[in-house]
Amino acid sequence: MTIKEIAFKNLLRRKGKAAFILAGLVIGVATVVAVIGFLDTMTMDINHKLEKFGANILMVPKTDNLGLSYGGLSMGGVSFEMKQLRQKDLEKITAIKNAANIAAVGPMVFGSIEIKNQQVLLAGIDFSQSRILKPWWKISGDLPGDNELLIGAEAARILGLGIGDTIGVDGHRLTVSSVLSPTGSQDDQLLFSRLSTVQAMLGKEGIISMAEVAALCKDCPIDEMVRQIGAAMPDAKVMAIQQVVKGRMETLARFKKFSYGISVVIILIGSLVVLVTLMGSVRERTEEIGIFRAIGFRRAHIMRIVFIEAGIVSVIAGILGFIVGYSASSLGLRFFSDFKVTSMPVPWGLGFGAILMAMVIGLAAAAYPAYMAARLDPNDALRSL
Asked: Parallel, antiparallel, or unpaired: how do β-strands 210-214 and 172-180 relate?
């Protein structure tokens, strides 16, 4: 009978202790797998949403302005100089170092118009970029062409306008081609038309009021891009809109640290379970180990038996722990997360890591019991028979 066969039969004879060791390792491994899998999937989902977050860098005209406000009350301001942004200057953005990270650039021009004795803000935008810059928009009707309007939901309600209606503005006839579904933002109160149409109506050919840039992705150096765009367009004030996303990512990072700490504690508990159980098993097998030593087994052979037993249980625990942990994290994503993740990819690398971790924990915990077994005096063991 080989050493491997002896170790395997020892596990079969002591199923209770083997199951106890297995349970301790499975709980520890499953906890780590579940935490890492859950957090990695949430992080991946956030990163995916960052790619479609819309405009995350704003460019507005630079101004030397002293704001007069206190406690949320605005009392106006003193504007000394307002720079102008020219549409052709946006081409400079394509020459910055991180231009490859820019998904879309949307110039906008604004002007106030009067419709039915109501002052309304008219915005000229590039509709070819709106799908990237405003992915949350849902439009009823067709995108505006020349001399056509997209009207916000609130503006449509107040002005009593719908698709097909025509309005006159300073000698221009504009037809409503589509209505924007409620967004819960200022867009609901605006009228939108093509950039060139609004520029011509307002006498601002080639001039823009602001520009939106979609560039916030998980690998984008946003702060550096803001600096580069600011250097390319010195007359623009460039700002990054990422406070909400940063807050969410920082919260997730803190949760990661906390979860990893809990996982370490659970792994230590699992290691103690293996250690105590194997030490008890070695004490119960004093006579058996004495017989092995009497018939010629060396200390290395005795240690190998204990390590093989621990290794077999550890491999099984790693596989079961990965399956249980993966299932738990998949279930947790459905019940405890607001992320719309329909399926969680199987992290095979994490599975390999789970088996390796279980083996390291099991073999490390078995080291002292194996040493104890190898140091047993065969004469003392045989006398106890």
From this structure: unpaired
